[in-house]
Design goal:
- The complex is a heterodimer.
- Chain A is α/β, with parallel strands linked by helices.
- Chain A contains eight helices and ten strands.
- Chain A has a single domain (30-285), classed as Spore Coat Polysaccharide Biosynthesis Protein SpsA, Chain A, CATH 3.90.550.
- In chain A, helix 1 (58-69) runs parallel beside helix 2 (89-99).
- In chain A, strands 1, 2, 3, 4, 5, 6, 7, 8, 9 and 10 form a ten-stranded mixed beta sheet that branches.
- Chain B folds into three domains: 4-156, no CATH class; 168-384 and 579-590, no CATH class; 403-574, 3-Layer(aba) Sandwich (Rossmann fold).
- Chain B has a six-stranded parallel beta sheet with strand order 2-1-3-4-5-6, sandwiched between helices. In chain B, strands 8-7-9-10-11 form a five-stranded parallel beta sheet, sandwiched between helices.
- In chain B, helix 13 (180-186) crosses helix 14 (194-205) and helix 17 (249-258) packs across helix 29 (576-590).
- The longest helix of chain B has 19 residues, at 226-244.
- The two termini of chain B are 29 Å apart.
- The chains are: A alpha/beta, B alpha/beta.
- Chains A and B meet through helix 4, strand 7, strand 8 and strand 10 of A and helix 23, helix 24 and strand 8 of B.
Chain lengths: 286, 593
């Protein structure tokens, strides 16, 4: 990642609406948002970097990190983005990674100087790694041991831009998630692919990373998938239970009124008009 | 009076034991009756002197007492016998008894009355019986039965055929499926007073196709029918074995072919794809028997002539799109309904009024067929059978275009499972494909750990997923079959606790594709047995079973044996010809051939 931001060549193009082919994530240097507070180097060249945004999940970050350690894929990079947690999640992460330093090709904990929100934390994760594939893991979720190796294999053999699997829900509710095969037209109805996916770095950069949406409502992954549809990128689905999704009774996505939902869907529709129109669906299939 | 076939079925004799010999050796001492016209238990209960005389060694069994003593004294051989009625109806018998030519009314009936089709009680109407069930005449002749009543005693009663013509209302009540509270709960706009609830259902709800039953109600019904179900399973299996040995059926199929019968097989084109596959299989099966079968959907013309029309999945056909315009055809004398909905589902409510009207009902579920017989339907259990050349029974060589398996290397290699048929060639360790229900969700998420060490494909489609055009579906029957062929274990989890035998998953996706079926316990099936053709284990322990099957040498050996046994069974007792045998008999009966 360069440290000098490239001046925009397109007039009046906000980052969110006109992603460039392979430029920096933002006009400003994303790396400048935070500082490395822990780093270790191990052996090997990793193909996959796991990005974990962290905001006040001290009680689950250990499980999340353990699930990365338990991956059968090696070597790995892990980057934890502490978005100014007020609990001691950051210290937890550091302590944990310190004790497992040998497991990772590179392990980093980066602490934002100011709280930036989930999207920018993910973008920082992208900026602070250079592996060709990135996995977005939430600090309260977990991976099953074969997850990364199988998702990586799926990407290699399908040539898709990102790979995702079925989720298993645990916590306040148990069950199977909503994921399904890549069908762009489904996004016109809602999101059915969780953020937990293995994504090609180039695809992320082409899409300009994660957008910061109003009110930080947790729909940045939906927004990213819509952007992927517009860019003609494709996902490959593995119908296997490779990721654990923790359900909280007070989870972000669940405590929402209908009115709020309407507003969010309207915003999506405005941001991605072609995704929400039927005609585009036909083109995408070709 | 001795009826060997009846005796054999009733007391579950194996086919190599001569019935009469059994009766002489064991039957007499166990006081079994060799004919349904005589009920030994009833007789002994009614007349305590019988017990005494047997104990004292005067007679060896109840039947002997009846023949030597009871008949002449006018004792009743069974609960069917009403001597007052018989005497009232037959003045010539009164005369005979008075003059001493006959000892008693019952002795007249046994020796002459049955053969003359005289009724033993007020409910039995021989003429009506033969009218309702024309197939009976042929059977009486073929089986050498004494008369119509013996037919009823041997076959009709078990089949729940009716001896009089109950009203539709009586039939519905007789099914045992309707429950006041359930109906109110499922239909909040219905009055809550029990008398009013029934009336609402009767006057509106039934024809509106409203749901009226629940798994609990169905379960209670099945519990009550336990003995009948067991006997019927046995009978069905015996009949299937006979058909397999080629003893009976060629005759019926030939007769239907000779007449150039045309059968229209109808299924909605806008319903669940799975129903269309069943319709296709039925049509192919008939064609394989040499009978002209033509596939149609709701856009066809009701003017098009067919000798018989089979409506597959009527709960969809007559309700979706133009299908509602076919309502008039539903009750026709040559309209056959093929029900594929389990009785406890909401959709069964839509099928039920149609099934009641039909002259013949086919049902993919063995237990539902029995319940429907209780409701006075002429119901025949039919699960599409294996047809070697047919689709769904062929290897799917190339799945490189299938979206669902795009992420797997094995999907890019051509694979013919029949070529070497080796367990280790199957890349998927555990496969589940089905719609999500709370029970399945829970069970699958508990199998989580298996996913770590094995390749566990879990395709759990949401019923509330947005409706897209058929092209964009995640799975189809072809995909399901292709996956089944590549799986070591095909997992079945019943949608609810009642556990109806899931034909599409266990048979179509499992047995026919050479996969080993592992299921949670469900209602028994006459053709496929747990422990022999597949594994049954309760949900709690199913993970352990799968682990044993995949991870131990002994387990893998059992896995391999069992899947082969299942496949073999599917191709023999589960074959299309065998499965169609009772259906063709029923067709012939309808057409009076």
């Amino acid at each position: 990642m360069s440290t000098d931001p490239t001046p925009p060549s397109l007039p009046d193009a906000s980052d969110e609406r006109a992603p460039r082919d392979a430029g920096p994530l933002r006009r400003f240097d994303v790396k400048a948002l935070g500082d490395i507070v822990y780093e270790s180097q191990g052996a090997g060249e990793a193909e996959v970097a796991v990005v974990i945004p962290l905001y006040n999940y001290a009680d689950t970050i250990g499980e999340a990190l353990q699930s990365v350690v338990d991956q059968d894929l090696a070597p790995l990079v892990v980057v934890v983005l502490d978005d100014c947690s007020t609990d001691d999640g950051g210290q937890e992460a550091i302590a944990f990674l310190e004790s497992r330093a040998a497991r990772f090709a590179t392990a980093r904990v980066v602490r934002h100087r100011r709280n930036q929100g989930l999207s920018m934390a993910r973008n920082s994760g992208i900026a602070w790694s250079d592996a060709p594939f990135l996995f977005m893991l939430d600090a309260d979720n977990r991976l099953r041991p074969p997850a990364l190796s199988r998702l990586l294999d799926a990407l290699h053999c399908s040539g898709a831009d990102f790979a995702y699997s079925q989720l298993r829900m645990f916590g306040d509710e148990e069950g199977i998630g909503l994921a399904d095969i890549w069908q762009p037209q489904r996004f016109a109805v809602g999101n059915y692919i969780d953020a937990m996916a293995l994504i090609r770095r180039e695809a992320l950069l082409a899409a300009g990373g994660y957008a910061v949406l109003a009110d930080d409502h947790g729909w940045e992954d939906y927004d990213l998938w819509c952007r992927f549809v517009e860019l003609g990128f494709e996902g490959v689905f593995l119908p296997e239970l490779l990721c654990d999704y923790r359900v909280h009774s007070a989870s972000m996505l669940r405590s929402r009124t209908n009115k709020h939902l309407d507003a969010l869907m309207a915003e999506m529709r405005l941001r991605h008009p072609s995704v929400f129109s039927a005609r585009q669906a036909g083109d995408q299939r070709a | 009076m001795f009826n060997p076939d009846w005796y054999r079925t009733r007391f579950s004799l194996s086919s190599d034991v001569p019935a009469f010999l059994h009766f002489l050796r064991d039957g007499v001492f166990e006081d079994l009756s060799p004919t349904p016209l005589f009920d030994s238990k009833f007789y002994r209960t009614m007349y305590p002197e019988v017990e005494t005389s047997i104990r004292d060694g005067v007679y060896s069994c109840s039947l002997e007492h009846f023949i030597m003593k009871g008949m002449d004294r006018g004792l009743s051989p069974s609960a069917d016998w009403d001597s007052e009625y018989y005497l009232r109806q037959n003045p010539d018998v009164v005369e005979d008894v008075k003059t001493g030519r006959r000892r008693s009314a019952v002795s007249h009936w046994i020796q002459f009355g049955i053969g003359e089709n005289r009724a033993p009680n007020a409910r039995f109407d021989a003429k009506l019986y033969l009218e309702n069930y024309p197939a009976a005449t042929e059977e009486i002749r073929r089986q050498g039965l004494l008369g119509t009543f013996e037919h009823f005693a041997v076959f009709g009663r078990e089949r729940r055929w009716l001896v009089d013509a109950p009203s539709l209302e009586e039939r519905v009540r007789g099914s045992g499926l309707f429950d006041n509270e359930v109906y109110s709960a499922l239909n909040p706009d219905v009055p809550s007073d029990p008398a009013d609830t029934w009336r609402h259902f009767w006057q509106h709800g039934l024809d509106e196709g409203r749901p009226f039953t629940s798994p609990e109600v169905v379960a209670r019904m099945l519990a009550r029918l336990e003995a009948d179900l067991r006997a019927e399973r046995y009978r069905f299996k015996m009949m299937a074995e006979a058909a397999l040995a080629g003893l009976e059926n060629r005759d019926t199929a030939a007769r239907l072919c000779q007449r150039g019968i045309r059968v229209g097989v109808f299924c909605s084109s806008i319903g669940n794809f799975f129903m269309r596959e069943i319709a296709d299989l039925l049509a192919w099966g008939l064609e394989a028997e040499g009978i002209t079968a033509i596939r149609r959907d709701q856009t066809g013309s009701s003017e098009e002539p067919f000798d018989l029309r089979v409506f597959v999945a009527p709960h969809e056909f007559f309700w979706l799109g133009e299908g509602s315009q076919w309502a008039g055809v539903a009750g026709a004398a040559n309209s056959i309904m093929y029900n594929v909905e389990q009785a406890q589902t909401r959709w069964f409510g839509r099928a039920f009024p149609l099934l009641l009207k039909a002259p013949l009902v086919l049902d993919i579920n063995f237990q539902t067929a029995e319940i429907l017989r209780r409701a006075g339907c002429n119901a025949v259990h039919f699960m599409p059978g294996h047809l070697p050349g047919g689709r769904c029974a062929q290897p799917c060589l190339d799945i490189s275009e299938v979206e669902l398996t795009r992420g797997y290397r094995f999907a890019r290699q051509p694979y013919d499972w029949l070529e070497r048929d080796r367990l280790e060639d199957r890349p998927i360790d555990l496969l589940f494909v089905g719609t999500a229900t709370p029970r399945r969700d829970m069970a699958l998420s508990r199998l989580q750990d298996l996913a770590d060490a094995h390749r566990f494909l879990c395709v759990c489609t949401r019923q509330d997923a947005p409706l897209l055009s058929p092209d964009y579906g995640t799975t189809s029957t072809d995909i399901n079959c292709a996956l089944g062929q590549r799986a070591k274990i095909v997992l079945n989890i019943h949608r609810d606790w009642l556990g109806y035998f899931e034909w599409s998953r266990m048979v179509l996706q499992g047995f026919w594709q050479g996969g080993c079926v592992v299921s949670d316990p469900g209602l028994p099936n006459p053709v496929f047995e747990p422990g022999v053709h597949y594994f049954e284990e309760n949900l709690r322990n199913i993970g352990e079973l799968v682990r044993w099957l995949l991870e131990t040498e002994e387990g893998r050996d059992q896995l391999d044996r069992t899947r082969r046994a299942g496949y073999e069974r599917a191709r023999t007792l589960g074959s299309m010809r065998v499965a169609l045998a009772p259906v063709l008999d029923a067709f012939a009966g309808l057409l009076r051939l």
